[in-house]
Design brief:
400 residues, mainly alpha, Growth Hormone, Chain: A, 18 helices, globular
């Protein structure tokens, strides 16, 4: 099967989605080894990712605008090369402040992907857009899943430096490969037909965006806090099960997010066939109980609660994105999704600080996940104010 421009776009967009989610998650496993190697406390080392997570969020809109003004394909190439190089640099340094700057490089170049990669994929898709977006979303979830096991294996069999350098080299090589295809004219921008925009009143548009903005903030806090805290939580509550190495912890985290990847496909299937509002509300209601279970559970029950929580969090993404797409004015859809990713990733640094503070003050994460459960319950009550949606109103937009 020849690699057409559309297929190459799919390949590089999916690889980019895998890389961005893996590169922004593997530090949460690496930091557990740095505690020992550098003889520094967890609550001092974990915040080194704060600047990177800030840049990952705030640079999303500038990256998207630069892609529009310059070159989408050029920005994607820069994403691969820049993030790969930054990760390699992280593996070559030996002090906290330089590491913080290296992680900031990962965040800065990583900010390119979501406002560039996903719309680029849509523009190069001529049919089965929903299915392709679902596949792309799964690659992002697999990036989360792969971060733990890849980092764990590289740490245990090589070193924590290899956990930065090996993925960095792969990302860098991917960037050079894309540069070759772009320079050879093998990747060009296509043009898919836009979807028919369902009519929505101004009042409904305002109401939907006011509610969804709150949901994006709460959802971002849950996503980043869970992703950041799970490795440490598993190392403490499941110490006898995971052993002393990083592989056991990484494997458990990978299992949690691998199952979440499957649920995103199921969420896309439901969102294509049923009303979006009830799917979205039920997903949030499930998270209320699962987050509280994480706060209180131990042993295999903790792993099960984490899996179910991530399933609910990932499963609602297609419905959430389709709601945004359905109510966003056609000429402002890029801006709307740019704002979404700024909020989604902008909660990252807040989560980093929250995790560090809770660990330092409480010595555990019971209050962290209990508080997230309460926030999810408050949002569940707010979501009932969303307008009911006609079943026929469907649009492309599923997938993170």
């Amino acid at each position: 099967m020849p690699l057409t421009s559309a297929r190459l776009s799919l390949v590089f967009s999916c690889l980019g989605h895998f890389y961005i989610h893996m590169f922004t998650a593997f530090f949460f496993v690496i930091v557990l080894t740095l505690e020992i190697e550098w003889n520094r406390p967890y609550d001092e080392l974990f915040p080194l990712w704060t600047l990177g997570s800030v840049l990952l969020g705030v640079l999303a809109i500038p990256a998207g605008r630069l892609g529009d003004a310059w070159s989408v394909r050029g920005m994607m190439t820069l994403f691969f090369i820049g993030m790969g190089a930054a990760s390699i640099v992280c593996g070559l340094i030996a002090e906290p402040i330089p590491l913080m700057l290296g992680l900031a490089g990962i965040g800065a170049f990583g900010a390119i992907y979501h406002p560039i990669g996903v719309p680029w994929l849509i523009r190069n898709t001529t049919r089965n857009t929903g299915k392709i977006l679902a596949v792309n979303g799964v690659f992002g979830s697999l990036g989360n899943a792969g971060a733990g096991i890849v980092a764990g294996l590289l740490i245990d069999y090589l070193s924590w430096r290899a956990a930065f350098i090996v993925p960095g080299v792969l990302c860098l090589v991917t960037g050079f490969a894309m540069f070759y295809y772009v320079a050879a004219g093998r990747i060009v921008d296509g043009g898919a037909a836009d979807n028919e925009e369902a009519a929505a009143s101004r009042a409904d548009v305002v109401r939907v965006f006011a509610i969804i903005l709150v949901a994006l903030f709460v959802g971002g806090m849950i996503y980043h806090s869970t992703q950041g805290a799970l490795p440490k939580l598993f190392s403490v509550r499941l110490a006898d099960f995971v052993g002393e190495g990083a592989t056991g912890i990484g494997a458990l985290v990978s299992i949690v997010y691998a199952v979440g990847a499957v649920m995103q496909l199921a969420g896309g299937f439901l969102a294509d066939r049923y009303a979006l509002k009830p799917i979205y509300i039920v997903s949030w209601f499930a998270q209320v109980f699962m987050l509280m279970a994480i706060a209180l559970a131990a042993g295999i029950g903790l792993v099960g609660a984490a899996i179910l929580s991530v399933m609910a969090n990932h499963g609602m993404l297609p419905a959430e994105n389709m709601l945004l797409y359905r109510y966003a004015p056609k000429k402002h859809r890029g801006l709307v999704f740019g704002i979404k990713f700024v909020i989604a990733f902008g909660t990252g640094p807040l989560s980093v600080l929250l995790i560090s503070w809770v660990w330092a003050e409480a010595g555990g994460f019971t209050w962290l996940f209990g508080g997230l459960s309460a926030a999810a319950l408050a949002l569940f009550a707010l979501l009932w104010a969303l307008p009911s949606e006609p079943r026929k109103a469907r649009a492309v937009g599923a997938g993170d």
